[in-house]
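Appendix B. Chain record.
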Amino acid sequence: MAKELDPLKVLLHLLSPNIEPDEAFKVLSHLDLDQWDALNAEAQRQEVEPFFYTLLVNLNKSHGLQIPQKDLLRQVYLATAAQNMLALHDTEIVLSALQKAGIAVAGLKGVYLLEHAYPDIGARSMSDIDILVKKQNLAECTGILEALGYRPTTYFDPNDENFDTKHLPPMQKSSGAMVEAHWTLLEENEPFTIDTEALWERTLPAKIANVDALALGTEDLILHLCLHLTYQHYLNLGLRSLLDVALVIHKFESEINWNKLVEIAKTWGAEKVTTLTLKLVETQLNVPIPAEVAESLLPEGIPPSLLEQARIQLLERVRFEDRLTPDLVKMNASSNVFSKIRIGLQRVFIPRLALARTYNISPTSPKIVYFYWIRVKYLIRNYGGTLQRLLKREKTTAPALQKAEISYTLHAWMTPQKD
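Structure tokens predicted for this chain:
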């Protein structure tokens, strides 16, 4: 009987924000132990165990649902809750210090979602404390964080042309979560046009970690989550990040101005990213999106084959030994030897500023030349074997190559074309 269960399909159905408790209980009460094992394994694979546990506990309270492996799920939930409590304690200290200095700050991603989209702070894991500050406040923000015991994890100078990054280096102290202070939502050299001044004008007051702070406007919040999952991370974050978007839309359904969202998405150049993400939310987690949103953003629609590729990329979390970057995929696709060499050299000789951030050294230091050699060794160690197998056309690389090619094709489709 266990073989008849599609654990991913069942998990998606159960985690839909619109599912009624009676329906969830009906689905779960008929599972045997093998099916429960498969469902729990899928929740772990998709990194939604804590949220799944809260659903099960609520059904236990309301319907008397018996939960196999409850202790294991509970341990994951409690560990997540404890880690988040510590992170929110640190967040309170950071936000209070910035507020005292008169620096406007908005909570991003997990640090906001934990308290405003999820049922409790243990229902979602969070690795970093992500905040948004204004670019002119970066130096002062760094000084405040350093006074609190945080240290930058690598080189950064706010006076550099930091077009290829969107936040200060992660700031870390002896214990606790790292802080990432963003000044924009996406790297400035990406082909999107996010107006940060307009972003700040649309921020809303929000209580975060017991501090009166700010949050992105509801429409900006949804768009940022779409960009983060689908474009920035190439649809590789799994169900948890799709659930972020679904829960925000469900929670703030009455407050969303869909016409405003469409307008902002168009000014950003994020029509395809937004349409694809919202379509995945609708088809996979059963959260209805007004039909006119997709029609306004992308009148030609999304090809069904592309939507299916995106679904597979997001949810079929297969891991391969071969690590295929966009450069390796390009090299493999090129039949020109000189083109392959050029791509390889570009991969090695990245801009000095990017190298400086990678190896925590000033870009003006004479020693930085040595770190190009360090980079060569790093690339050989981590990608040399994959490159050899690609050049030999070994069959073992085929599954990883196919997945990577689909990923980068989807990414290229989403990327706005500049005139």
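Further analysis of this model is presented in Appendix C.
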